[in-house]
Amino acid sequence: MAAMNANNIGTCQANTSESCQLNWRGNMPAMTEKARPYIDIAQRLKWHRETIVGLSQADYAQSIGFKRSIYSLWEAGTHRLSLDGALALRSKYGLSLDFMYEGIDDALPMTLRNAWRDRP
After folding, report:
1. Contact 98, 104 (CB under 8 A)
2. Cα(68)–Cα(60) distance, rounded to whole angstroms?
3. Phi/psi at 13 (5° precision)
């Protein structure tokens, strides 16, 4: 039986052997290792929620009109903060889009900018 890879995925017969599944899994990243491509955005959101506002995820999400489940994905860094979410945070808390997406703190209100720069 041919080894499984992306180029010959169709070479294994259904219900014939587990070896094809094992070979295919060997070529794939572990499913338990979640990629967190937006961790930088997540860290800024979590810092603001915990340090500045002092709310739980559920209360913080509700304060901007979103479900906790959506917000928790943003804060985990697995999903990118939506534009609607960023605009809601800007409207409610004065966070700039530059800060949320890029980490540029120049457009933050002075008290938030100082708190961000003074964090440990």
Report:
1. yes
2. 8
3. -90, 145
For Cα atoms 34, 4, 32, give the angle at the middle one, nearest 5 degrees.
Answer: 15
Single-letter amino acid, residue 6 = A
- Mean pLDDT of successive 10-residue stretches along the chain, which has 120 residues: 47 51 48 77 97 97 97 97 98 96 94 93
CA dihedral 45, 49, 52, 54 (to 10 degrees): -170
Nearest to 47 by CA among 107, 106, 98, 118: 118
Q: 36 vs 11, 62, 79, 97, CA distance in Å?
A: 33, 24, 8, 20
Please state, in angstroms and as integers, the Cα–Cα distance from residue 90 to each residue in 39, 46, 69, 99, following that order: 19, 15, 20, 10
| pLDDT for res 25 | 46
**Diameter over CA atoms, the chain:** 66
The secondary structure of residue 29, as a DSSP letter, is P
Which residue type does 61 have? A
